[in-house]
Amino acid sequence: MFKPISALLGSKRKNKRIITISYDIFAVTFSLYLAIAIRLNTWVFPIHFDEIASLTTTIVVTLACFVRLGMYRAVLRYMMLPALGYIFFAVFLSSIALALSGFFFQSFVPRSVPLIYAGLAIVTLGGPRILIRTFY
After folding, report:
1. Cα–Cα 20 to 30 A to 73, which of 14, 62, 97, 110?
2. Distance between CA 35 and CA 96 in Å, rounded?
3. Which residues are CB-neighbours of 6 under 8 A, at least 6 positions away?
4. TM segments (predicted)?
5. How many Å apart are CA 41 and CA 76, to the nearest integer?
6. Cβ–Cβ < 8 Å for 123, 27
7. Over 80: is that where the pLDDT of 26 sits?
8. Helix, strand or coil for residue 68?
């Protein structure tokens, strides 16, 4: 096993949880950016306060769903496959929060973006958890 990975696996649970939450924030942000970029067919687009408010709402709802569903209490190496259903459910609620926050904040979130975001978020949030469970 690689030395950085073994050091990470041997670290305290609090540190692992901080890393997992940080990655989830990055994954939600990346998924939303990529969903908008795919929809608009461009990598550069203006971001205003309304879009940042929608992103913040989406991140908070996603993290709250993960906390409520126990995703940060579970040890990733021993996570069972039904936990993937929780990821699907949390991403579903997150995409609904994205659509509603885009509506209420009147931010530029095209109607197809929540669907694209949901697919990307499932891959970016669920994929690493499956890989960690598979290999370690």
Report:
1. 97
2. 15
3. none
4. 21-40, 52-71, 83-109, 115-132
5. 35
6. no
7. yes
8. helix
pLDDT at 76: 60
| DSSP conformational letter for 42 | -
Structure tokens at 49: 């306060």
Asked whether 115 and 62 are in contact (CB, 8 A), the reply is no
What is the rounded radius of gyration, in angstroms, for the C-alpha atoms of the chain? 16
Percent of the chain as helix, strand, coil, to the nearest 5 = 75, 0, 25
3-state secondary structure 52-97: HHHHHHHHHHHHHHHHHCCCCCCCHHHCCCCHHHHHHHHHHHHHHH
**pTM for this model (two decimals):** 0.86
Tokens 């990470």 belong to: 8
Structure confidence by residue, pLDDT tens digits, 116-129: 999 999 999 988 88
- Eight-class DSSP state of 39: H
Q: With beta carbons less than 8 A apart as the criterion, state whether 66 and 20 touch.
A: no
Structure tokens at 61: 């709802």
Number of neighbouring beta carbons within 10 Å of residue 115: 13
Domain ranges of the chain: 24-135
